[in-house]
Amino acid sequence: MSFKRTLVTSALPYANGPVHIGHLAGVYVPADIYVRYLRLKGEEVLFVGGSDEHGVPITIRAKKEGITSQDVVDRYHSLIKKSFEGFGISFDVYSRTTSKTHHQLASDFFRKLYEKGEFIEKTSEQYYDEEARQFLADRYITGECPHCHADGAYGDQCEKCGTSLSPLDLINPKSAISGSKPVLRETKHWYLPLDKHEGWLREWILENHKEWRSNVYGQCKSWLDLGLQPRAVSRDLDWGIPVPVEGAEGKVLYVWFDAPIGYISNTKELCDAQPEKFGNWETWWKDDETRLIHFIGKDNIVFHCIVFPSMLKADGSYILPDNVPSNEFLNLEGDKISTSRNWAVWLNEYLVDFPEKQDTLRYVLTANAPETKDNDFTWRDFQARNNSELVAIYGNFINRALVLTQKYFEGVVPELGELTDYDKETLAEFADVKTRLEQLLDNFKFRDAQKEAMNLARIGNKYLADTEPWKLAKTDMARTATILHIGLQIAANLAIAFEPFLPFSSQKLRTMLNLKSFNWANLGQIDLLTAGEKLGTPELLFEKIEDAIIEAQLQKLADTKKANEVAEYKPAAIKENTTIDEFDKNDIRVGTVLECSRVPKADKLLQFKIDDGMGGRTIVSGIAQSYPEPEKLVGMQVCFIANFPPRKLKGVESQGMILSAVDADGKLVLIQPSRTVKNGSQVG
User: Are 290 and 3 in contact (CB under 8 A)?
Assistant: First the structure.
């Protein structure tokens, strides 16, 4: 089916913290690439985004900081919006689910389904905090995970092992608000009966959308094969959109029901404000000639492919998504990105650390896009791709073409002379670049499409390297003019080909080429620039990233990891009870280290010579890995057990045991008296 227009939505980021590179790689850069591509083609397209501002995590942060939930979302909505703007994510509208438009439309949406009898009412038992006098959302209940037995698991998921949970699964549950043990109480809620929609969903997805990505299709099939169950659309909470029916006091719309309606309300807000430009919002959501595309991460597949379509179908007046190109997850330096552990590269911090290098991150995240499986971001790869691809290939070609034109032709596009066979071969290589890119972009294969655009830069780079116009200029200026004319035409094509991927550098290149008008239809042509036209001033398109810059980012992550290890440290379990008489059998003394060295052929052992106040002794201790420079221990006072029987370790007789403690990072730390005492003093 052909469509008149395309509506593109991107998952609403949760406004209880900043956004990171995982969000950018999984959702927003792919969506922006696609939208920019459609705009270049001159198609009618609308790009809708916004912040998801309701739900329990926001109330938890508000309570923790002693501020209101509105304060939290105001702060992070602004920060997230600025981050997206900084990376050139070209939304037509970026609004929020706390807007008046959204509250009204979400309420009306619920009310219509309620009046049509599309919900069922169910009474169930849920945990209630008698001290706080409120029902507890899943995230307000913590306890021991029944799977890995970690403490502090939430009522919906264990952060330690990642297992999805129900509050009733927790061992020894307690309220995160008061710390008291919650009790079960009956409460009434409204449910969307997904089982009622299972038949048409199965046909719509499994039969009619086999072209969807395998990860999307597979997850939907798995859910449908297991059988769908009714899903609650309301919650006992004081932050959110009140359920608009009688007898629903203290209840709000569940955030999963509320949030996707934000796509519709944000569209309405934009169209109501600028009807002359964007028309009526219903044209974008209720006209069969509109194509709806959702860009999301894999944790949102079920909501956008099964739940939200069921809501739209229940209403009866909305179109359904034509495609849901979901990405998998992006890891960071081999570890899962985690907001709670601060293991992330935050976009707002990146914009400070790497000013004017937004395109570098866009390029690397697209090159490593987790389109079919989880992928990994590393700072070394980021540096390598910038230096060896953007700088050494694309940037080098552009710089050569423009600087040589400036040098030999005073910055004016030279005349195209007679073409050699090699010229014709080169031109033929990129003649079908438009077709190749379209085949990939139309099928949401952005990683391969960007690679195809970079191949065009490789063609240009190789062409100049092979023809060597800087040498020919000494003897054949006409041939030099032809070579640089072709080089400049390739450069102009690159400005178009890379526009969806690298908008900032493409704009810079268009300025240098003085390319005032361009569109997708021009791609692959060799007359984008006219001989005699004056070019702009050549500048470096990309700059090399030095090792010190990358080391600083790696150190930041190392500091985060160390802080997490300290925060997560839990002492070993207490050993079984003993008595003072048993303890007194150990003769613990203080001595000064006179000598300390490694024991040969023993990686873990250090040999101490101790002044124990009684003639001295030798003690061997297994702490070498915690003290790689043993000579620095000389002069330190340490505690040791003096009455252990002597034993040989690697041929050295050890006369006692030096006491140490295990630090949070797993290293052994020598136990010392708090001030200097006489050697041989007893500890008791």
Answer: yes
